[in-house]
Design brief:
The chain has 131 residues and is mainly α. The chain contains five helices and three strands.
Length: 131
């Protein structure tokens, strides 16, 4: 499993994780499309936006390997702002290539693209996560 060095491990000040520390012994957790309903809590929406900002800052428009990115967090974006970059797709593979659908991401998370400085990352605990 590829570990994305420098990628934020979580949304600062919360328990919303963006990465996992080690591969699951029973195999990768399958990425499934989760519905985002209008009545989701503001903190949940902020976590989605923070994760999208981290993806955008780290990968941009280029395809990227799933690696140690959290399947639960990816599941909130998959099929909309993040899409499988290869066909056939394997949602239960750490090597699966993903890509940001920039047009859809700009509509769903305009704050990420209009004010990229609105998300700051605390790199201190990222280093500890990889120790």
């Amino acid at each position: 499993m590829l570990k994305h060095r420098g990628f934020p491990s979580r949304l600062p000040g919360t328990d919303f994780q963006f990465t996992i520390r080690r591969a699951n012994k029973q195999g990768p957790t399958k990425i499934i499309r989760r519905e985002r309903f209008r009545d989701r809590a503001a903190v949940d929406r902020r976590a989605d936006a923070g994760f999208m900002a981290a993806l955008w800052n780290h990968f941009g428009e280029e395809p990227f390997e799933r690696g140690n990115l959290d399947a639960g967090r990816l599941s909130w974006l998959i099929g909309r702002e993040v899409v499988f970059a290869t066909d056939p797709a394997d949602p239960a593979d750490y090597d699966q290539l993903l890509q940001i659908d920039v047009a859809r991401a700009r509509v769903a998370f305009p704050e990420v693209f209009e004010d990229p400085e609105s998300f700051t990352w605390d790199d201190e605990d990222d280093e500890e996560d990889w120790a």
